[in-house]
Amino acid sequence: MALIQANNISKQFGGIAALKSINIEVEQGEIRGLIGPNGAGKTTFFNVLAGNYTPTAGTLLFAGSDIGKLSIHERVSLGIVRTFQNIRLFSSMTVLDNVKMGYHARTSSGWLATAIGRRWVFDEEKRLKENAISLLERFGIERIADEQVGNLSYGHQRRVEIARAMAAKPKLLLLDEPAAGMNDTEGQELVRHIRDIRDQGVTIIIVEHDMRVVMSVSDHISVLAHGEIIAEGEPEAIQGNQRVNEEYLGKG
Ligand code: ATP
């Protein structure tokens, strides 16, 4: 069964049809690339998946259940977690504290335990810190744990954002332009991290303009243009697809 099944999803903004009855199925454990020119509808689709937008029409199934009416928070609780095109970290907080925040995303009740007793909070805090540090180690950024996020390079901030998303224990991770602002070396490191995340059983959809990153990391790619899926297939087939080259890749 597909983890995500989007059936005939449309999204209209006044007179603008951002998504025109699109169908996308993503299998459990897959890395799916979503590419297309500016304004194609990629971010709109992410917003529909994450619950920021209600589609004008269509149904959305997650592991076979209709999630179309669930709030953003309910979807996070199910394991649908995203990063943003414009990084949304707490820039005045440290790297470690940002990642610790990620653990609270999945359960809003975390700090209710405060009422239960200080000992519990102390143990919980210690556990959180250990978990957060081991996540930072996985992403190779443990050395900057105590730095303020606002002082970091863009590439580092992107990694912190992914680490924070992973703290929420996603089943489906939506990455919105994770390579933006990264150099080639950072891009290739990102590819390794994304594969590593998938190897832990997380399904990933990645919106990305950096073709080296998206072509090397994706199992399959869906190409959106003018709110429609114009092609779908393995990276090699997409690179050789005439329509995709005319509408997007050839324009680089
Ligand atoms: P980019 O690669 O530039 O991020 P995109 O593929 O993510 O582009 P979207 O941001 O989804 O494209 O935009 C699709 C279309 O919907 C565009 O025409 C955009 O102007 C329009 N649109 C998106 N969000 C809104 C909104 N909140 N209100 C009105 N129009 C919107």
Describe the structure.
It is a single chain. By secondary structure, this protein is an alpha/beta fold. Helices cover 38% and strands 25% of the residues. It has nine helices and ten strands. The chain has helices at 42-50, 72-78, 95-105, 118-138, 154-167, 184-199, 211-217, 235-239, 242-247, and strands at 2-13, 16-27, 31-35, 57-62, 65-66, 80-82, 172-176, 203-207, 220-225, 228-233. A hairpin with a 2-residue loop joins strand 1 and strand 2. Helix 3 (95-105) packs parallel to helix 5 and helix 6 (184-199) packs parallel to helix 7. The protein starts with a strand and ends in a 5-residue tail after the last helix. The chain binds adenosine-5'-triphosphate. Adenosine-5'-triphosphate is lined by residues 13, 16, 18, 36, 38-44.
Helix fraction, binned, reads: 25-40%
Count all strands and give the number. 10
Order of helices and strands: EEEHEEHEHHHEHEHEEHH
Uncertain segments: 109-114
Ligands in the model, by name, code or SMILES, are: adenosine-5'-triphosphate
Strand neighbour order, sheet with most strands: 6-7-8-3-9-10
* Main sheet record: 6 strands, mixed
Global outline = globular
Mean pLDDT: 89
Total of DSSP H or I helical runs spanning 4+ residues: 9
Give the C-alpha Rg.
Answer: 19 Å
Instruction: Return the structural class.
Output: alpha/beta
Q: How much beta, percentage-wise?
A: 15-25%
N- and C-termini, Cα separation: 36 Å
Keywords: ATP-binding, Nucleotide-binding, Transport
Protein name: ABC transporter domain-containing protein
Pfam families: ABC_tran (PF00005)
Domain ABC transporter: 4-251
